[in-house]
């Protein structure tokens, strides 16, 4: 009689998410799978642990945008999970660096490699790990049978009892606008760099001394700024930038017209806001129980508004009492009864918080330059430098610690949104979260100010418009803050990551999965069961043997990494997926033994 094949799991993507899943698999194995045999196949063209984004072969100038003390790959008792808590060091503790430093991506990649090695070492003797440094091309196989994972450069597919997709950030084919801009650039001998991971872009095409229009003011722009300045030999002396002469001139604008808010530069002290308060499991359960689709602005945003506001005012009243004019218990009771966005709530806040600067205005935070006009481009430069300077001062001032309370509330909110899956908001929430909570380190914004004073960076402001001028054969750009003033350039850079859409992804595996029946949201995210990450098919049923975790799914979590003691929804997702996978493997093993 032929021997039953060893049980097998294929994990596609061996970066942080694949490593996190492996850690949870190792943690849950003793209780759920004992010492049974298992093969784990990790498929990734980049080294396991760091994967593509955190690989060693990238510029040492590129930093994380998280403090070393705020990065952990290990669970703690703040995480709601069914599996065991397995504590471990933060990046700061592991690397022996200052907790409030911003390590290089290379250093983070080394930490991730160590975490991966620890997870492999924790696996029982009967479990074997196989690394495949290539791409997965397609998954096939019946719902109730073994899956076949075809790999690039390998004739025979991997056979798997289940497959986990942990692909991370995806490349994408250009959309219609990007194709038009690339075609225009090709016709006129111009340079157009579409959305991409900046470290992988060919920046050598951007010549020294020439203007470059940059659309996007988030973290991709910060990387671009670093690689085109220090990366070309420039240097900083205190608050002054000394150009090398090899830099282009970057004209940068975006919808908001400002960079993401600086990382907060102080630690939490004192009483934490009671989170969740207005948007927790009970409210999420109620939303999930409603018939029909949810509307983000109508059903979800009021809960977010209320939660963020409560955290803000709780901190203001408890830590900065001298700036309030009411007792917290009375204010909290009235706040709880008021409708978000109502005149009643506005009057309550105005009476209790005398200084308008101490009141939370989410719209003003999201669109700080709405309606702001400048007579000239030079006036805009001065205005933006003043804005960035003020943001830096505020985000490093413990007297404004209500901002850190709002940050903690944002993390809490994200933990609930993961359960809701597709928000139907076109990605606006994720963009708002990133802008407010996932901005660059303060030193990067101080460098941006120095570059602005040196004339290497010029601000275009909010509401950026980009045109392709066929008659003159140039790109043109203008912002809403200086009406009628246009900038012309022979190069355009889209400073953002591609949108993770199933229809336009360059991943042949995901494209085939979509063609074979996997469900996608209107925004192109892969629909998964929020309970355990199983991929949903077009009939709404979760596939019993296919899982997906990460930013290309409807259960994506906020931020690349988890701060210690903040609940870590990504940890909970990894744990639930690992336990579901082990449960299936145990069931199959029992079935095989009974039929033997």
Automatic annotation (TrEMBL):
Domain spans labelled FAD-dependent urate hydroxylase HpyO/Asp monooxygenase CreE-like FAD/NAD(P)-binding: 10-169
InterPro entries referenced in this protein's UniProt entry, alphabetically: FAD/NAD-bd_sf, HpyO/CreE_NAD-binding, L-asp_N-monooxygenase_NS-form
Region (Disordered): 538-561
Pfam families found in the cross-reference section: NAD_binding_9 (PF13454)
Name of the protein described by the UniProt record: FAD/NAD(P)-binding protein
Species name: Streptomyces formicae
Lineage: Bacteria, Bacillati, Actinomycetota, Actinomycetes, Kitasatosporales
